[in-house]
Amino acid sequence: MVIVPNGPIDVDWLGEQIESLHLEYDEESARNLQRYPYDLTQTRRHFSWGADSQTVQFLIETAATFGRDGLIAAGGAGATLLLEQGWQKLYDQLKARGHDVRYGRIATLSDDEAESRGRWLIVGEYAVEYDELTPRAVGRNKSDQTYSLTASGPDGAVYSVVFQVRGTSATLLECKKELH
Fold first, then answer.
1. pLDDT (tens digit, 9 = 90+) per residue, 92-126?
2. Which of 70, 89, 95, 169 has the lowest CB atom count within 10 Å?
3. What is the CATH architecture of 111-178?
4. Quick check: pTM over 0.70?
5. Where are the domains positioned within the chain?
6. DSSP per residue over the chain, as a string?
């Protein structure tokens, strides 16, 4: 997840929010307990070369072990679900504070954005020119948050792609070329 602040951001608050994803409040002891092992590293950088900029990076590493069934994330599926819900809550809080979150989350695209992404994926797969593709149908599947594009090429071929976008990265899930 990369956050573009669009103004001031409280990095101490952000660090606490990220760390709290791995903690659970215990009512009896009235304190936070660790759900499972993790390592949180925070790095701050300042660049002064032309236009100044600063970056803050938080790296979370969670413990994992190898068992007889392969790689097992610490805490199992229940912890994974709780962690995903925690990240979604943090994402929502950051958006509510006016920050852009551009990487890591599944992105919602307009039809024009989906059309453009789909055309570029077809260009990459089949070496046709972007401007030679004529979009025929753009779709969105809300249940699995994927997009689809069907476009015609100059040779009469019909290209179809299904993809998902996380932040700025599009992942091609299906591609097809039908000759007519």
1. 888 888 877 655 667 788 999 999 999 999 998 88
2. 70
3. Roll (3.10)
4. no
5. 3-101, 111-178
6. --EE-SS---HHHHHHHHHHTTEEEETTTTEEEESS-EEEEEEEEEE-SSS-EEEEEEEEEE-EEEETTEEEETTHHHHHHHHHHHHHHHHHHHHHTT-EE-SSSBPP--HHHHHHHHHHHHHHHH---GGG-EEEEEEEETTTTEEEEEEE-TTS-EEEEEEEEETTEEEEEEEEEE--
